[in-house]
Every structure is written in structure tokens, then in C-alpha cells.
Amino acid sequence: MAKKPIVEVDGLAKSFTHKGRAEQVLADISLRVEQGEIVSLLGQSGCGKSTLLNLIGGFTVPDKGTIHVGGEPVRRPRISCQMLFQDYGLLPWRTVRANVDLGLLSLQLNASERQERIRRYLALVGLEDKGDWFPHQLSGGMKQRVALARALALQPSVLLMDEPFAALDTFNRYYLQDELLRIQEAEGTTVILVTHDIDEAVYLSDKVLIMEANPGRICKELAIPFMKPRDRGDGNFQHYRKLILEAFRLTGVLPAEEYSI
Ligand SMILES: Nc1ncnc2c1ncn2[C@@H]1O[C@H](COP(=O)(O)OP(=O)(O)O)[C@@H](O)[C@H]1O
Ligand SMILES: [Mg+2]
Q: Taking the CB of residue 257, how many other CB atoms lie within 10 A of it?
């Protein structure tokens, strides 16, 4: 793992106005993500995770504070920072290949370079033989793999993932988590992952940023240094899981007997 921060967020604040009243959604958010890391934003629904991810992606502007990606201030969405959503965002009338091609239109590539990119990234996600299929012919897990290929084909330095596996069943979710680890290692992409799933955060992350709500803040940062792939059943895994559960109890978010947030 490299040691250079690729994402730097300092003193970020964001409010939204609803029916004439300003609601502070994020307050005083600062964080660092190093190159090649997987960092999770973990917190209950409504604590501002998606808002923070949208700010880092340049889809929204902050009221206060600064965001730098790769040393550059973020002012608008950029190709080097790609977002992956829970609902896949595929165009149903385009084939798998044409969906992956969509993002590539914005790059200065000739036709054969584009075809090669599509081939390479469909192969990377294990869908090289599904290029002519349409989204409705694919399972949820396959659709998310197409979305991943489409994002990675742009060769971003940072991948922002907003609860990307939340709509999948447990088996598909576990499978895609392993796929993400394999692909992330192969490509060296930095990943910021929004999740409300404690196990997912422990399984994937080098660092977990635990958020609390009203206004959304990072209340604890937990490094998870042990080797990947991780065994969900072993003591190390349970240790970090317990630390996270305790953090939520301490902040009053999680009733003592509950194991999911
Ligand atoms: N565009 C918007 N306009 C007004 N309020 C918003 C907007 N986006 C998010 N919010 C509010 O900000 C809060 C945090 O939302 P969000 O970032 O989606 O939380 P999370 O992803 O953690 O569930 C919520 O109360 C939500 O209603
Ligand atoms: Mg959200």
C-alpha cells in the first residue's frame, strides 16, 4: 500500500434548504485517503454519506472547506474520479458493450483503441462473452459488473462507490466483494465506499470512517491493517467488527442488542 494521500478533504460543511429552512447535513469533515486504499464511510441512513461522496466526486459544491483529488481542487465531476451507484445506472436500450463504450466517447480514443478498452474491462469483470447482451438479460450482480467495467474503462484514479452491493443477495454480495478486491488489486484504483453494512466495511476496508448524524460528522477512524482476503469467521475479523459495534453504541446510534445499522 502506498502512502501518498490522493484524496484530501478539509473542514467541509454542507447544508440543504428544505421548505425555507436550512438543514446542516455535514459539519467539519476532514479526511485523507491514500493511493491504493479502500476506505469505507460507514453510518446510519441519512447521516450524509452520499452527500459526502457527491462532494468528493464534484457533483455538489460545499458551503465551506476544500476537497483535493490528486492534488487538484475539485470543482466539477472529472473522468479521474468515477462513481458507481446501487442501481447500476445502465441504459436499457444499449448492449453491455455499448454501455461500457458510453463513457469512452468522452476520451480521445480511436475506434480500435475503444474496442480494446471495452474488451479488456469486460474481461476483467468476467463478462467478455456478454458484450451483445442487454441489461434486462443480466442478473443484478452481472449488471453491477457491467457498471464496474464502464467506470474502470475510463481508468480513474479514484472509484467512488455508493452502496454498490446493497441491492444484491448475500451470495452475490460476497462474490462481488471478492471481485472488487481482485480487480482493485489488479488496477491499483483507490476506492471510497459508502456502506451501512459493518461486515462489508470490515471485509473490504483498509480504513473505516465511522459517521454520526445530525449533522453528519466523522466520529471515529479505524485502521484495519490485517491481510486480505479476510476470513469472516476468524478472530481478527470479529475483533474489528466488535470495535465498530462499540463505536456505534458509544455514539448512541446503535441499541446494544442490534447488529446492523
Ligand atoms: N439535494 C438535496 N436536497 C435537500 N436535502 C438533501 C439533498 N440531498 C440529501 N439531502 C438530505 O441530507 C441528509 C443526508 O442525506 P444522504 O447524504 O443521502 O445520507 P446517507 O447517504 O447517509 O443516507 C438527509 O436528511 C437528506 O434528506
Ligand atoms: Mg446514501
A: 5
Q: Each residue of 68-86: pLDDT tens digit? A: 999 999 999 999 999 998 8
Ligand 1 near 26 CB (within 6 A):
no
* Pairing, β 190-195 against β 38-42: parallel
Are the CB atoms for 40 and 193 separated by under 8 Å?
A: yes
Alpha helices in the chain (DSSP H): 49-57, 96-104, 111-124, 140-152, 170-187, 198-204, 235-250
Concatenated DSSP letters for 62-117?
Answer: -SEEEEEETTEEP-S--TTEEEEETT----TTS-HHHHHHHHHTTS---HHHHHHH
- Does the pLDDT at position 238 exceed 70? yes
Longest Cα pair distance anywhere in the chain, in angstroms?
58
SS3 content of the chain, % helix, strand, coil (to 5): 35, 25, 40
Ligand 1 midpoint to CA 213 (Å): 11
Give the span between the Cα atoms of 245 and 258, in whole angstroms.
Answer: 9
For residues 237 and 10, give the distance between their C-alpha atoms in angstroms, rounded to a whole number.
Answer: 31
Nearest to 126 by CA among 153, 145, 104: 145
pTM over 0.90, yes/no: yes
Q: Is 29 in the pocket of ligand 1 (CB under 6 A)?
A: no
Rounded distance, CA 29 to CA 14, Å? 10
Three-class secondary structure of residue 176 per DSSP = helix
Cα of 48 vs centre of ligand 2, distance in Å, is 7
* Residue 260 pLDDT grade (very low, low, confident, very high; cuts 50, 70, 90): very low
